[in-house]
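User: Please fill in residues for this 326-position structure.
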């Protein structure tokens, strides 16, 4: 994953950790050594691109030095600035032709402007994208939410928290207008706002907004997409809790998941697989906090549902190997 976003130093660190665990005779070791070697080639290519853009293509030893995180950030910013003219033209052309991609074209422009660290333009064009969205412009079928917390978090990281919150609230109003207050789409968008609050450290308003979701049946919170990806409110909140736990906020993550579990136990049968899935998420959070006894209890509890009612045939398959790892 780190390699795919050109975070090469971190990728190499984990590759070398894996390499130390693989026996000399294992065929996978040779492939991993090659991947580490490929990182060096990629690193050199990125550095040369950066030097070329700065008007300095001299082939010196310094050209092959790895970029620092700040240099890498600047490289992507420069790339984004170079692409702005074309992506702006794409958005304008989509507007003229009123084609079904115009929402996405304006959103692409806004995301590129965030990468270029142009928050005011990004906010304006993300707002334009939401204005362009309607059932006819729903370019990927039933694809929700309209706007993810990632864009809002990027705005907040650039010192524009209020604009990030405003964007998600605009998307929420749009979902309500198009699909209704009690729709799956509305709640999927509301979950993005909850995620934003927690990731920005606004826990009080995060929990008060989460309570609105916890009054709704999990069956309404679910969604399926017949074309393109779709993320339900439950999936958004579970992933948010996982990220919080990985950042040392396991107590908040546990409280989020426990509220969700209480909601599911209120509306679903006790042997529903969705309950087991959430119990395992709680177990993962407990492991992150090194609460191993609590994690074991949760893993066994989930396994009983999987084995008895879902058809998993043993403890290993029922818990994805967690019990042995614990």
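Assistant: Residues filled in for all 326 positions:
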């Amino acid at each position: 994953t780190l390699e795919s976003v050109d975070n090469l130093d971190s990728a190499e660190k984990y590759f070398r950790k894996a390499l130390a665990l693989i026996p000399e005779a294992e065929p996978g070791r040779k492939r991993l050594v090659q991947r580490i070697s490929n990182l060096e080639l990629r690193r050199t290519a990125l550095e040369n691109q950066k030097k070329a853009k700065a008007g300095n293509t001299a082939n010196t030893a310094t050209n092959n030095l790895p970029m620092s995180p700040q240099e890498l950030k600047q490289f992507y910013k420069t790339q984004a600035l170079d692409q702005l003219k074309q992506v702006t033209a794409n958005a304008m052309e989509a507007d003229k032709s009123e084609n079904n991609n115009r929402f996405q074209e304006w959103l692409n422009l806004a995301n590129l402007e965030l990468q270029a660290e142009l928050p005011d333009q990004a906010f304006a064009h993300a707002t334009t994208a939401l204005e362009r969205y309607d059932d006819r412009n729903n370019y990927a079928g039933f694809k929700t939410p309209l706007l993810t917390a990632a864009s809002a978090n990027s705005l907040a990281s650039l010192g524009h928290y209020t604009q990030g919150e405003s964007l998600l609230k605009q998307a929420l109003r749009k979902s309500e207008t198009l699909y209704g207050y009690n729709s799956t789409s509305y709640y999927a968008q509301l979950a993005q706002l909850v995620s934003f609050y927690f990731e920005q450290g606004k826990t009080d308003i995060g929990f008060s907004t989460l309570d609105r979701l916890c009054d709704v049946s999990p069956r309404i919170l679910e969604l399926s997409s017949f074309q393109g990806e779709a993320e339900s409110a439950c999936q958004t909140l579970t992933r948010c809790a996982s990220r919080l736990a990985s950042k040392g906020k396991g107590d908040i993550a546990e409280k989020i998941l426990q509220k969700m579990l209480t909601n599911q136990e209120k509306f679903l049968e006790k042997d529903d697989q969705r309950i087991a899935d959430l119990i395992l998420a709680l177990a993962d959070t407990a492991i992150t906090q090194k609460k191993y006894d609590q994690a074991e209890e949760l893993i066994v509890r989930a396994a009983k549902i999987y084995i008895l009612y879902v058809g998993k045939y043993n403890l290993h398959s029922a818990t994805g190997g967690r019990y042995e790892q614990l």
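For context: The chain has a mean pLDDT of 83.
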